[in-house]
Design a protein that fits this description.
16% strand; alpha+beta; 9 helices; globular; 207 residues; binds flavin mononucleotide; four-stranded antiparallel beta sheet; two-stranded antiparallel sheet
């Protein structure tokens, strides 16, 4: 385990080639996703969903949909499909109930807030909903990439894939879920190339 935050943050590189012999246990994958989902989310609705593709059969099914990202698919320990629920309000009440149960929120507050937030989410257009839930799931995705490094693994965020193909492959309707990204994860076999960033003074203004 690496607990050096600066090293985790600044040493992350997109890794495309992994050691095929390294398997990550389902328990460790669950642990990493659990840690990653400590991410904040809009009204704490946590719309993220993850499909871990870590069997030969699953990888084979995913392969035709990953366009130019086949090397990551073929060599990683797992390809994680990050999805977002387009109706998170339908299953969010149990989150609020859990907060009440744990004493983090009073029942009165829950009974005031939850219907209010549900009404707000019910009023979103599909476009607005996609925007909201993609932000939430992207925050968890970023955390997952950093958590992976703390566990000694490398990742690559992948946007180059056929979203509709992936949803079909998973048997999910595009009215219920949207894809956010794929994340390949494994032990690096070839280090990622360093990359440059814009000068901070070119991207920041103070008002
Ligand atoms: C949303 C998103 C989509 C990306 N899609 C791909 C991709 O399809 N294939 C790929 O090899 N890298 C992909 N990348 C990785 C970027 O190319 C990489 O993050 C960028 O060049 C900076 O390099 P670094 O991650 O090593 O710092 C993606 C990154 C993000 C955040």
């Amino acid at each position: 385990m690496n607990n050096d935050f600066k090293d985790i943050l600044l040493g992350r590189r997109s890794v495309k080639v992994y050691d095929k012999n390294v398997k990550i246990s389902n328990e460790e994958l669950l642990k990493m996703i659990e840690e990653a989902t400590s991410a904040p989310s809009s009204v704490n609705f946590q719309p993220w969903k993850f499909v871990v593709v870590n069997t030969e059969e699953g990888k084979k099914k995913l392969r035709p949909h990953v366009t130019f990202n086949t090397e990551q698919n073929d060599t990683s320990s797992a390809m994680i499909v990050v999805l977002a629920d387009l109706k998170p309000q339908k299953s969010a009440e149990k989150i609020y109930d859990k907060a009440v149960e744990k004493g983090y929120m009073s029942k009165e507050v829950k009974e005031k807030l939850f219907p209010m937030y549900t009404k707000m989410y019910d009023s979103f257009s599909k476009k607005q909903m996609i925007e909201v839930v993609k932000i939430d799931a992207s925050l968890a995705s970023m955390q997952l990439m950093l958590v992976a490094r703390s566990h000694g693994y490398a990742t690559n965020a992948i946007g180059g894939f056929d979203s509709e193909g992936v949803l079909n492959m998973l048997g999910l309707s595009k009215n219920e879920y949207c894809t956010v990204m794929l994340i390949s994860i494994g032990k690096a076999a070839k280090e990622g190339r360093p990359s440059v960033r814009r000068d901070v003074r070119d991207i920041v203004t103070f008002l």
